[in-house]
Amino acid sequence: MSRKNYIRYLIIAVIILLASFFYNLPYYVSKPGMAKELEPIIKVDGGYDEKGSLMLTTVRMGRANIYSYILAKLSKYQEIFPADMIKYENETDEEYTLRQLRAMDDSKLSAIEVAYKKAGIPVKYRYKGVYVMNVLPDMPASKKLKPGDRIFKIDNFTFKSSDEFKQYVSKKKEGDEIQVSYVRNGKTDRAKLRVMPFPGHHDQFGIGIVLEDDKDIIVDPKVKVNTDDIGGPSAGLMFALEIYNQLTKGDLTHGFNIAGTGTISPDGTVGRIGGIEQKVVAADNAGADIFLAPNENGANGSNYKMAVKTAKEIGTHMKIVPVDTFDEAVSYLENLRDKKS
Protein backbone atom coordinates (compact mmCIF):
# COMPACT_ATOMS: atom_id res chain seq x y z
CA MET A 1 0.00 0.00 0.00
CA SER A 2 1.36 3.36 -1.00
CA ARG A 3 1.92 6.04 1.61
CA LYS A 4 -0.72 8.19 -0.12
CA ASN A 5 -3.37 5.47 0.12
CA TYR A 6 -2.38 4.69 3.72
CA ILE A 7 -2.94 8.33 4.73
CA ARG A 8 -6.27 8.40 2.86
CA TYR A 9 -7.55 5.27 4.63
CA LEU A 10 -6.30 6.56 7.96
CA ILE A 11 -8.21 9.81 7.49
CA ILE A 12 -11.38 7.90 6.54
CA ALA A 13 -11.01 5.68 9.62
CA VAL A 14 -10.58 8.70 11.90
CA ILE A 15 -13.65 10.39 10.38
CA ILE A 16 -15.74 7.24 10.91
CA LEU A 17 -14.45 6.94 14.48
CA LEU A 18 -15.31 10.56 15.29
CA ALA A 19 -18.70 10.34 13.58
CA SER A 20 -19.61 7.29 15.65
CA PHE A 21 -19.12 9.34 18.83
CA PHE A 22 -21.77 11.80 17.70
CA TYR A 23 -24.23 9.31 16.17
CA ASN A 24 -26.96 8.63 18.72
CA LEU A 25 -28.61 5.23 18.90
CA PRO A 26 -32.33 4.95 19.80
CA TYR A 27 -31.37 4.10 23.39
CA TYR A 28 -30.52 5.81 26.66
CA VAL A 29 -27.86 4.65 29.11
CA SER A 30 -28.08 5.22 32.86
CA LYS A 31 -25.15 4.81 35.23
CA PRO A 32 -24.34 5.63 38.87
CA GLY A 33 -24.34 9.36 39.48
CA MET A 34 -23.49 11.12 42.72
CA ALA A 35 -24.58 11.43 46.32
CA LYS A 36 -24.95 15.13 47.05
CA GLU A 37 -25.11 16.66 50.53
CA LEU A 38 -28.32 18.59 51.01
CA GLU A 39 -27.37 21.03 53.77
CA PRO A 40 -25.45 23.31 51.37
CA ILE A 41 -28.36 23.50 48.90
CA ILE A 42 -31.30 23.69 51.32
CA LYS A 43 -31.50 26.68 53.64
CA VAL A 44 -34.26 27.23 56.20
CA ASP A 45 -34.11 30.71 57.73
CA GLY A 46 -32.70 30.30 61.22
CA GLY A 47 -32.47 26.52 60.71
CA TYR A 48 -30.57 24.13 62.95
CA ASP A 49 -27.21 22.61 61.95
CA GLU A 50 -26.46 18.89 61.67
CA LYS A 51 -23.39 16.86 62.65
CA GLY A 52 -23.65 14.29 59.86
CA SER A 53 -25.26 14.69 56.46
CA LEU A 54 -28.40 13.87 54.52
CA MET A 55 -27.74 13.20 50.84
CA LEU A 56 -29.79 12.84 47.68
CA THR A 57 -28.60 10.28 45.14
CA THR A 58 -28.69 10.55 41.36
CA VAL A 59 -28.13 8.56 38.19
CA ARG A 60 -26.46 9.87 35.06
CA MET A 61 -28.67 9.48 32.01
CA GLY A 62 -27.72 10.17 28.40
CA ARG A 63 -28.32 9.16 24.81
CA ALA A 64 -26.27 6.15 23.79
CA ASN A 65 -23.70 6.15 21.04
CA ILE A 66 -22.00 2.99 19.82
CA TYR A 67 -19.29 3.11 22.48
CA SER A 68 -21.47 3.94 25.48
CA TYR A 69 -23.91 1.22 24.40
CA ILE A 70 -21.14 -1.41 24.27
CA LEU A 71 -19.71 -0.24 27.60
CA ALA A 72 -23.14 -0.43 29.22
CA LYS A 73 -23.58 -3.97 27.91
CA LEU A 74 -20.32 -4.93 29.60
CA SER A 75 -20.98 -3.05 32.86
CA LYS A 76 -23.02 -4.55 35.70
CA TYR A 77 -24.46 -1.30 37.04
CA GLN A 78 -25.29 0.46 33.81
CA GLU A 79 -28.72 0.05 32.21
CA ILE A 80 -29.91 0.46 28.63
CA PHE A 81 -33.42 1.73 27.88
CA PRO A 82 -35.18 2.11 24.52
CA ALA A 83 -35.79 5.81 23.82
CA ASP A 84 -39.58 5.36 23.90
CA MET A 85 -39.33 4.24 27.54
CA ILE A 86 -37.70 7.54 28.49
CA LYS A 87 -39.44 10.11 26.31
CA TYR A 88 -43.08 10.47 25.32
CA GLU A 89 -44.11 10.04 21.71
CA ASN A 90 -43.16 13.18 19.71
CA GLU A 91 -41.54 14.70 22.83
CA THR A 92 -38.58 16.93 22.02
CA ASP A 93 -35.39 17.09 24.08
CA GLU A 94 -36.52 20.51 25.30
CA GLU A 95 -39.86 19.12 26.47
CA TYR A 96 -38.20 16.13 28.16
CA THR A 97 -35.79 18.38 30.05
CA LEU A 98 -38.63 20.67 31.09
CA ARG A 99 -40.68 17.69 32.30
CA GLN A 100 -37.78 16.50 34.45
CA LEU A 101 -37.18 19.96 35.94
CA ARG A 102 -40.90 20.42 36.65
CA ALA A 103 -40.96 17.00 38.33
CA MET A 104 -38.13 18.23 40.55
CA ASP A 105 -40.05 21.42 41.34
CA ASP A 106 -43.16 19.43 42.28
CA SER A 107 -40.99 17.18 44.43
CA LYS A 108 -39.62 20.20 46.28
CA LEU A 109 -43.11 21.61 46.92
CA SER A 110 -44.36 18.29 48.30
CA ALA A 111 -41.25 17.93 50.45
CA ILE A 112 -41.69 21.41 51.93
CA GLU A 113 -45.36 20.76 52.65
CA VAL A 114 -44.67 17.40 54.33
CA ALA A 115 -41.76 18.72 56.42
CA TYR A 116 -43.51 21.88 57.63
CA LYS A 117 -46.73 20.04 58.49
CA LYS A 118 -44.73 17.44 60.41
CA ALA A 119 -43.10 20.30 62.31
CA GLY A 120 -46.55 21.76 63.07
CA ILE A 121 -46.09 24.82 60.84
CA PRO A 122 -48.95 25.94 58.54
CA VAL A 123 -48.53 25.86 54.76
CA LYS A 124 -50.28 27.95 52.10
CA TYR A 125 -50.13 27.95 48.28
CA ARG A 126 -50.32 30.83 45.82
CA TYR A 127 -51.46 29.72 42.35
CA LYS A 128 -49.91 31.54 39.40
CA GLY A 129 -51.42 29.70 36.45
CA VAL A 130 -50.36 26.63 34.49
CA TYR A 131 -47.17 25.56 32.74
CA VAL A 132 -47.21 24.31 29.17
CA MET A 133 -45.37 21.01 29.47
CA ASN A 134 -45.94 19.66 25.98
CA VAL A 135 -47.38 20.99 22.73
CA LEU A 136 -49.16 18.51 20.45
CA PRO A 137 -48.25 18.67 16.76
CA ASP A 138 -50.91 19.74 14.25
CA MET A 139 -52.97 21.41 16.97
CA PRO A 140 -53.62 25.17 17.25
CA ALA A 141 -51.15 25.73 20.11
CA SER A 142 -48.25 24.28 18.09
CA LYS A 143 -47.97 27.54 16.12
CA LYS A 144 -48.14 29.90 19.09
CA LEU A 145 -47.07 28.30 22.38
CA LYS A 146 -43.88 26.59 23.57
CA PRO A 147 -42.98 24.27 26.46
CA GLY A 148 -42.22 26.41 29.49
CA ASP A 149 -44.81 29.11 28.75
CA ARG A 150 -46.90 30.02 31.80
CA ILE A 151 -50.56 30.69 30.98
CA PHE A 152 -52.29 32.85 33.57
CA LYS A 153 -55.52 33.90 31.83
CA ILE A 154 -57.99 32.70 29.16
CA ASP A 155 -60.08 35.49 27.66
CA ASN A 156 -61.03 37.43 30.83
CA PHE A 157 -61.03 34.35 33.05
CA THR A 158 -58.24 34.06 35.64
CA PHE A 159 -58.03 30.45 36.80
CA LYS A 160 -56.31 28.81 39.75
CA SER A 161 -55.51 25.33 38.46
CA SER A 162 -55.12 23.20 35.35
CA ASP A 163 -58.50 21.62 36.14
CA GLU A 164 -60.21 25.01 35.93
CA PHE A 165 -58.39 25.69 32.66
CA LYS A 166 -59.56 22.38 31.18
CA GLN A 167 -63.14 22.91 32.35
CA TYR A 168 -63.27 26.33 30.71
CA VAL A 169 -61.91 25.10 27.38
CA SER A 170 -64.04 21.93 27.39
CA LYS A 171 -67.20 24.05 27.26
CA LYS A 172 -66.13 25.56 23.94
CA LYS A 173 -67.26 24.25 20.56
CA GLU A 174 -65.15 23.41 17.54
CA GLY A 175 -63.98 26.59 15.87
CA ASP A 176 -64.55 28.83 18.90
CA GLU A 177 -61.72 31.31 19.42
CA ILE A 178 -60.05 31.87 22.79
CA GLN A 179 -57.33 34.27 23.81
CA VAL A 180 -54.60 33.01 26.15
CA SER A 181 -52.34 35.35 28.09
CA TYR A 182 -48.95 33.88 28.93
CA VAL A 183 -45.44 34.66 30.12
CA ARG A 184 -42.35 33.52 28.19
CA ASN A 185 -38.83 34.38 29.35
CA GLY A 186 -40.21 37.06 31.64
CA LYS A 187 -42.28 38.78 28.94
CA THR A 188 -46.08 38.78 28.77
CA ASP A 189 -47.82 38.04 25.47
CA ARG A 190 -51.21 36.92 24.13
CA ALA A 191 -52.27 34.47 21.46
CA LYS A 192 -55.62 33.81 19.78
CA LEU A 193 -56.32 30.13 19.18
CA ARG A 194 -59.26 28.19 17.77
CA VAL A 195 -60.53 25.14 19.61
CA MET A 196 -60.49 21.89 17.64
CA PRO A 197 -60.92 18.13 18.30
CA PHE A 198 -57.96 16.14 19.58
CA PRO A 199 -56.63 13.58 17.09
CA GLY A 200 -58.49 10.30 17.57
CA HIS A 201 -60.92 11.90 20.05
CA HIS A 202 -63.45 13.79 18.01
CA ASP A 203 -65.71 14.37 21.00
CA GLN A 204 -62.95 16.12 23.00
CA PHE A 205 -61.89 19.66 22.19
CA GLY A 206 -58.89 21.76 23.11
CA ILE A 207 -55.91 23.70 21.79
CA GLY A 208 -53.34 20.88 22.07
CA ILE A 209 -51.27 21.38 25.21
CA VAL A 210 -50.32 19.29 28.24
CA LEU A 211 -50.56 21.37 31.40
CA GLU A 212 -49.28 21.37 34.95
CA ASP A 213 -50.13 23.68 37.83
CA ASP A 214 -47.69 26.50 38.56
CA LYS A 215 -47.77 27.53 42.20
CA ASP A 216 -45.61 28.92 44.98
CA ILE A 217 -45.62 27.59 48.52
CA ILE A 218 -45.80 30.13 51.35
CA VAL A 219 -44.16 29.18 54.65
CA ASP A 220 -42.61 30.89 57.64
CA PRO A 221 -39.70 30.53 58.24
CA LYS A 222 -38.79 30.71 54.57
CA VAL A 223 -36.87 27.91 52.86
CA LYS A 224 -34.76 27.93 49.73
CA VAL A 225 -33.96 24.78 47.76
CA ASN A 226 -31.34 25.30 45.06
CA THR A 227 -31.24 22.24 42.78
CA ASP A 228 -29.79 23.93 39.68
CA ASP A 229 -30.21 21.51 36.77
CA ILE A 230 -31.03 18.34 38.75
CA GLY A 231 -34.25 16.86 37.40
CA GLY A 232 -36.81 14.24 38.35
CA PRO A 233 -38.93 13.55 41.46
CA SER A 234 -36.78 10.96 43.23
CA ALA A 235 -35.16 13.26 45.82
CA GLY A 236 -38.47 14.12 47.51
CA LEU A 237 -37.95 12.00 50.63
CA MET A 238 -34.44 13.32 51.26
CA PHE A 239 -35.53 16.94 50.64
CA ALA A 240 -38.28 16.53 53.25
CA LEU A 241 -35.89 15.02 55.80
CA GLU A 242 -33.32 17.79 55.35
CA ILE A 243 -35.94 20.53 55.65
CA TYR A 244 -37.49 18.91 58.73
CA ASN A 245 -34.06 18.47 60.30
CA GLN A 246 -33.32 22.18 59.90
CA LEU A 247 -36.76 23.13 61.25
CA THR A 248 -36.57 21.13 64.46
CA LYS A 249 -34.27 20.82 67.45
CA GLY A 250 -32.15 17.71 67.71
CA ASP A 251 -30.34 16.15 64.79
CA LEU A 252 -31.76 13.30 62.71
CA THR A 253 -28.31 12.42 61.38
CA HIS A 254 -26.70 11.68 64.80
CA GLY A 255 -23.37 12.19 63.03
CA PHE A 256 -24.03 9.60 60.28
CA ASN A 257 -23.87 10.14 56.53
CA ILE A 258 -27.37 9.19 55.39
CA ALA A 259 -28.23 8.79 51.73
CA GLY A 260 -31.52 7.73 50.22
CA THR A 261 -34.12 8.09 47.53
CA GLY A 262 -37.86 8.02 46.96
CA THR A 263 -40.62 10.28 45.75
CA ILE A 264 -42.73 12.06 48.35
CA SER A 265 -46.47 12.70 48.15
CA PRO A 266 -48.18 15.53 50.05
CA ASP A 267 -49.57 12.91 52.47
CA GLY A 268 -46.04 11.68 53.24
CA THR A 269 -46.12 8.46 51.20
CA VAL A 270 -42.70 7.43 49.88
CA GLY A 271 -42.84 6.15 46.30
CA ARG A 272 -40.81 3.98 43.94
CA ILE A 273 -38.03 5.43 41.81
CA GLY A 274 -35.89 4.26 38.91
CA GLY A 275 -32.21 3.36 38.98
CA ILE A 276 -32.09 2.09 42.55
CA GLU A 277 -29.03 -0.09 41.87
CA GLN A 278 -27.03 2.84 40.49
CA LYS A 279 -28.06 5.00 43.43
CA VAL A 280 -26.86 2.42 45.95
CA VAL A 281 -23.51 2.33 44.17
CA ALA A 282 -23.37 6.16 44.16
CA ALA A 283 -24.15 6.31 47.89
CA ASP A 284 -21.50 3.70 48.70
CA ASN A 285 -18.93 5.58 46.62
CA ALA A 286 -19.72 8.70 48.66
CA GLY A 287 -19.15 6.91 51.96
CA ALA A 288 -22.75 6.78 53.18
CA ASP A 289 -23.42 4.83 56.39
CA ILE A 290 -27.17 4.39 55.84
CA PHE A 291 -29.34 4.22 52.72
CA LEU A 292 -33.11 4.80 52.89
CA ALA A 293 -35.03 2.95 50.15
CA PRO A 294 -38.75 2.85 49.20
CA ASN A 295 -40.24 -0.34 50.65
CA GLU A 296 -43.42 -0.34 48.50
CA ASN A 297 -45.18 -2.17 51.34
CA GLY A 298 -42.90 -5.16 50.89
CA ALA A 299 -43.83 -5.86 47.25
CA ASN A 300 -41.78 -8.31 45.20
CA GLY A 301 -39.06 -6.48 43.30
CA SER A 302 -39.42 -3.39 45.49
CA ASN A 303 -36.75 -0.70 45.53
CA TYR A 304 -35.76 -1.86 49.02
CA LYS A 305 -35.26 -5.49 47.98
CA MET A 306 -33.26 -4.47 44.93
CA ALA A 307 -31.16 -2.13 47.09
CA VAL A 308 -30.39 -4.96 49.54
CA LYS A 309 -29.38 -7.23 46.63
CA THR A 310 -27.08 -4.57 45.18
CA ALA A 311 -25.53 -3.81 48.57
CA LYS A 312 -24.61 -7.48 48.98
CA GLU A 313 -23.17 -7.65 45.47
CA ILE A 314 -20.85 -4.69 45.98
CA GLY A 315 -19.88 -5.75 49.50
CA THR A 316 -20.83 -2.49 51.19
CA HIS A 317 -21.19 -2.07 54.95
CA MET A 318 -23.88 0.57 54.33
CA LYS A 319 -27.14 -0.28 56.12
CA ILE A 320 -30.18 -0.45 53.82
CA VAL A 321 -33.38 0.72 55.54
CA PRO A 322 -36.92 0.23 54.15
CA VAL A 323 -39.38 3.14 54.38
CA ASP A 324 -42.98 3.47 53.26
CA THR A 325 -43.74 6.90 54.72
CA PHE A 326 -42.00 10.06 55.83
CA ASP A 327 -43.07 9.39 59.42
CA GLU A 328 -41.34 5.99 59.31
CA ALA A 329 -38.13 7.57 58.07
CA VAL A 330 -38.20 10.23 60.78
CA SER A 331 -38.96 7.65 63.48
CA TYR A 332 -36.05 5.46 62.39
CA LEU A 333 -33.60 8.36 62.37
CA GLU A 334 -34.82 9.78 65.68
CA ASN A 335 -34.09 6.44 67.35
CA LEU A 336 -30.50 6.20 66.09
CA ARG A 337 -27.75 6.38 68.67
CA ASP A 338 -25.06 8.98 68.03
CA LYS A 339 -22.23 7.76 65.80
CA LYS A 340 -19.09 6.99 67.73
CA SER A 341 -16.08 9.08 66.79
UniProtKB/TrEMBL annotation:
<feature type="active site">
    <location>
        <position position="279"/>
    </location>
</feature>
<feature type="transmembrane region" description="Helical">
    <location>
        <begin position="6"/>
        <end position="25"/>
    </location>
</feature>
<keyword id="KW-0645">Protease</keyword>
<dbReference type="InterPro" id="IPR008269">
    <property type="entry name" value="Lon_proteolytic"/>
</dbReference>
<dbReference type="Pfam" id="PF13180">
    <property type="entry name" value="PDZ_2"/>
</dbReference>
<dbReference type="GO" id="GO:0004176">
    <property type="term" value="F:ATP-dependent peptidase activity"/>
</dbReference>
<keyword id="KW-1133">Transmembrane helix</keyword>
<dbReference type="InterPro" id="IPR027065">
    <property type="entry name" value="Lon_Prtase"/>
</dbReference>
<dbReference type="GO" id="GO:0006508">
    <property type="term" value="P:proteolysis"/>
</dbReference>
<dbReference type="GO" id="GO:0004252">
    <property type="term" value="F:serine-type endopeptidase activity"/>
</dbReference>
<feature type="domain" description="PDZ">
    <location>
        <begin position="120"/>
        <end position="186"/>
    </location>
</feature>
<keyword id="KW-0378">Hydrolase</keyword>
<keyword id="KW-0812">Transmembrane</keyword>
<protein>
    <recommendedName>
        <fullName>endopeptidase La</fullName>
        <ecNumber>3.4.21.53</ecNumber>
    </recommendedName>
</protein>
<feature type="active site">
    <location>
        <position position="234"/>
    </location>
</feature>
<feature type="domain" description="Lon proteolytic">
    <location>
        <begin position="229"/>
        <end position="336"/>
    </location>
</feature>
<dbReference type="GO" id="GO:0030163">
    <property type="term" value="P:protein catabolic process"/>
</dbReference>
<dbReference type="InterPro" id="IPR036034">
    <property type="entry name" value="PDZ_sf"/>
</dbReference>
<dbReference type="GO" id="GO:0005524">
    <property type="term" value="F:ATP binding"/>
</dbReference>
<keyword id="KW-0720">Serine protease</keyword>
<keyword id="KW-0472">Membrane</keyword>
<comment type="similarity">
    <text>Belongs to the peptidase S16 family.</text>
</comment>
<dbReference type="InterPro" id="IPR020568">
    <property type="entry name" value="Ribosomal_Su5_D2-typ_SF"/>
</dbReference>
<dbReference type="InterPro" id="IPR001478">
    <property type="entry name" value="PDZ"/>
</dbReference>
<dbReference type="InterPro" id="IPR014721">
    <property type="entry name" value="Ribsml_uS5_D2-typ_fold_subgr"/>
</dbReference>
<dbReference type="Pfam" id="PF05362">
    <property type="entry name" value="Lon_C"/>
</dbReference>
